[in-house]
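re: ur question from yesterday

yeah so i grabbed the chain u mentioned. its 77 aa long if i counted rite. heres the sequnce exactly as i have it in my notes:
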Amino acid sequence: MVALAQTIDHLIEEQVHDGSAHSEIEAEQMIISVVAERVIDRKIAKSQEQVRNGQYSEFNDEFMTNLLAQAKTRHSV
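ran it thru and got these structure tokens back, copy pasting raw so excuse formatting
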């Protein structure tokens, strides 16, 4: 974990030094944005793979009607 922190600190310094970011805070925000985007991209890729493999449910009117009926049954018990 220490090596990761040192790598991030070095990356922040480089971003500020080469003018990609105006401050350490801006550099940190840029890094966080990139990491968040990568997480989202991985989740999208996983979801696309699940769809290709048929691992999904359609949320149509029939599904919603059945879901509401099940919820009412559970609530009344």
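noticed a couple things. Helices lie at 2-17, 24-52, 61-76. also The mean pLDDT is 96.
anyway ttyl
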